[in-house]
Amino acid sequence: MSQFNENAKWRYATKKFDTTKKVSAEDLATLKEAIQLSASSFGLQLYKVIIVENPELRAKLLPASWGQTQIVDASHLIVFANQTKFDDSDVDAYLTSATAIRNLPEGALSGYGDFMKGSLANMPEDVRPNWTAKQTYIALSNLLNAAAELKIDVTPMEGFVPAQYNEILGLDKLNLNASLVAAVGYRHEEDATQHYAKVRKSNEDLFLTL
Length: 210
Fold this sequence. Notes:
The chain is 44% helix and 14% strand. The chain contains nine helices and four strands; from the N terminus they run H-H-E-H-H-E-H-H-H-E-H-E-H. The chain has helices spanning 2-10, 25-36, 55-61, 70-73, 88-101, 110-121, 128-149, 162-169, 203-206, and strands spanning 47-52, 76-83, 153-157, 176-185. A four-stranded antiparallel beta sheet has the order 1-2-4-3, with helices on both faces. Helix 2 (25-36) crosses helix 7 (128-149). The chain is globular.
């Protein structure tokens, strides 16, 4: 755990990436697995993770990202997109997968499936996209922690126009919405931000014991 905290102290939101350094295929696979293993409500993972490598596509995203150059300079750009719609078929897909992976008899999870379907059916329509968007933040946290262990920099970004991302990446057609962006790569030696002392609330201000 001490190493975990040291990694957390090491990481920061990188402002300037080294365009000459690329994340290896092996390390990218590790980061993808960390995202894949993220916790989510009911385990449904109602989102997609888009890895944008195409430089022309990333150039189109730059104006939609408030002109932040990390979008084009980082080794990889990861877009977390939450499902805007979901139904019983998403639950059924999860149950089919869980039954096979856990080697359970058919129908063993039907009771849990009915519980999930009932819970989701009672969720108001206007709440649903917000609920699925929250799940992407959990996945982002896994990416941040895994990358820090590998000494790979990640800049989590909310400073972009989701509607423009959705149009450029064709997410609307897939019932997806860009909720978070993460630029992944290696800090440039000229990025002065890496030398700033980390500013966080004190334990006294942050924690409340009841």
